[in-house]
Design brief:
homodimer; alpha/beta; Arc Repressor Mutant, subunit A; 3 domains; 12 helices; ATPase_NBD (chains A, B); Nucleotidyltransferase, domain 5; 5-stranded mixed sheet; WH_DNA-bd_sf (chains A, B); WH-like_DNA-bd_sf (chains A, B)
Chain lengths: 363, 363
């Protein structure tokens, strides 16, 4: 009951457009003022809430008084491993990115343990920076360009050359991460969640496409990530665009990835945009989704890619004349996946602050 | 309140594996025995329920006594217009098909009003047969191979050559249908719903593919039809399989329909199966759906199509080695769409028996 009410109070403050008072929080939650005050005191002591005192009236305005999420409370460590970079960010409870580290290097020659050890170095930098700022980390989440099971095992990451990698075990072996709650998920799924949350009150149904060396997608329907039967939805990079076309690392021919991956875009943006348009038209024909968000390396290239994509979508989508398809760049640019990863850590705190406070007390 | 309780009692009987007594229905619903008895009497008087008396014990067995849906109560009139046939069926509350009429004729030369007048003749036959058997019709639903809006307007049916057809108005002008509640929906969506309900307790997530002259799909996720933003999902017939391939009636090139429509299957089943496999692989890569149900004209052809489809799916689905994809023929064969249409009428009665009983009393 206390755990439920702690979450209720914390979420009421988090979702409030202004800083609610203790009294307003009592009204919004239906809890008594005494109960709310005790819970608020616990959340302030645990570093999750902060209380702004009313300022003396000076001049025309007056800063808002009341409760707010604490910017120096729990923070999330977002990590990403991709084919040609490693990255880490620290995001605080208010959603602000406090630290950000990126190391560019080709990961393909490295075995999984070696690549994750390198990632551990970047994560360690982020962790040191957070500690220097007094930001306690509530956990870490890793974005991987591959098929991830619910327990965090990477079944296949074709562009990294990984197969059946127990990523959580390898991460726990890294000193900088050993003591943190850890999770692992597909990078396009995490990026789609990052976009969904960055665009508060915005589009609730969209396709997020992440263009790196490989290409993945996250499908958001009515504000929820659609994961599919086994959590392996969104493999748009392996949708066939030219059935007898270029061979792909996955064993098939003519996969989108071979025409519109980052290297292919650099070589021939026109061909890449046409291939993307063909695959995106298939998605719109199948799912009747009206908004497509291009992220990763596509975000800065959108202007160059747009005409080719739009021409194919217009030509190949049966409903193109009846319902427009909107194409836009990801709000979070190339950081969407690691931001989404950090966000899953923070969501877990907002959903269950009691567990976080207990861990913090024990730690 | 009475309307809600009528629905509760009717659905409790409908979902019960055996024939529940009034007492058992009272326990299951939480309503008093007196309330249940009054509601049951109303449902019996309205023709929706029937009560079986216990039979005298003779020999080893004894027929079950208790409440059941009435086989001669409300029935649904399911209608379908497709490119080369018109059909109608009468389905009773127990799900049994009581009458079925099919007229084979090419509808493409006819204007919409003329085609629907022809459909009215088939519907009239079904209606007469139902009346001769004392089956009261609760309504009619029409399956159309095209894009249908929520109000029943057919925006486009490419293979019929229809555009912006006010189907409900044309249907209401037909004497055999004028006095019935009417609805119109996409044929693949209705067929997918028909399959979902025919396979009680079976697969809750699957792709239903309807192969006629055109090709449509219904996407069922966790027991719900996924309709998309505007209700126009499932246009798999216009997914591109060969970007520079055969021209399609929709204006694009290389649409699946041009390689795997009914006429193309007859001409070259190998080519059709490969094209189907390419498009289905795209669906599995995008949605991580493990079950594909082939209906319409595909159902009787499955044995011939299976090897080609499975070869392409195995080659082109990234997770093919990790998670099998099951391919099966539709349980309802070519009748799935009109059966699904009739079923929507019966669902409406089960969801709101009070409205049906009021209409019946007024009529």
């Amino acid at each position: 009951m206390r755990a439920h009410n702690l979450a209720l109070v914390l979420q009421t403050v988090a979702n409030s457009p202004d800083r609610p008072s203790r009294a307003a929080t009592s009204t919004a939650t239906g809890l008594t003022r005494a109960t709310v005050s005790a819970l608020v005191d616990d959340l302030i002591a645990g570093g999750l809430l902060t209380e702004h005192e009313p300022a003396p009236r000076v001049g025309a305005g007056r800063p808002a008084a009341g409760l707010a999420l604490a910017p120096d409370g729990a923070a999330g460590l977002g990590l990403e491993i991709n084919v040609d970079y490693l990255s880490a960010c620290v995001v605080d409870l208010t959603g602000a990115v406090r630290h950000r580290f990126v190391a560019h290097a080709d990961q393909r020659p490295l075995a999984p343990a070696a690549a994750l050890t390198e990632l551990g170095r970047v994560a360690g930098q982020a962790r040191q920076a957070a500690a220097a700022n007094g930001l306690p980390l509530a956990g870490a989440a890793l974005a991987v360009p591959g098929l991830v099971t619910a327990d965090g095992t990477v079944r296949v990451a074709p562009n990294l050359g990984w197969q059946d990698v127990d990523a959580p075990a390898l991460l726990r072996a890294i000193p900088a991460l050993a003591d943190l709650p850890l999770s692992v998920d597909n990078e396009a799924n995490l990026a789609a969640l990052g976009e969904l949350r960055a665009d508060h009150g915005g589009e609730q149904t969209f396709l997020y496409v992440s263009g790196e060396i490989g290409i993945g997608a996250g499908i958001v329907l009515d504000g929820e990530l659609y994961r599919g039967g086994r959590g392996w939805s969104g493999e748009i990079g392996h949708v066939t665009v030219y059935p007898d076309g270029r061979p792909c690392r996955c064993g098939a021919n003519g996969c989108l990835e071979q025409y519109a991956g980052q290297e292919a875009v650099a070589a021939d943006a026109g061909l890449a945009a046409a291939a993307l348009g063909i695959a995106l038209a298939a998605v719109v024909n199948l799912l009747d989704i009206g908004v497509i968000v291009l992220g990763g390396a596509y975000a800065p290239e959108l202007q160059r890619l747009r005409p080719g994509i739009e021409a194919e979508v217009h030509r190949r989508v049966l409903t193109a004349d009846l319902a427009p398809v909107t194409l836009r760049a990801a709000t979070l640019g190339t950081d969407a996946a690691m931001r989404g990863a950090a966000d899953t850590v923070l969501r877990a705190v907002l959903d269950d602050p009691a567990s976080y406070l207990n861990l913090r007390r024990a730690g």
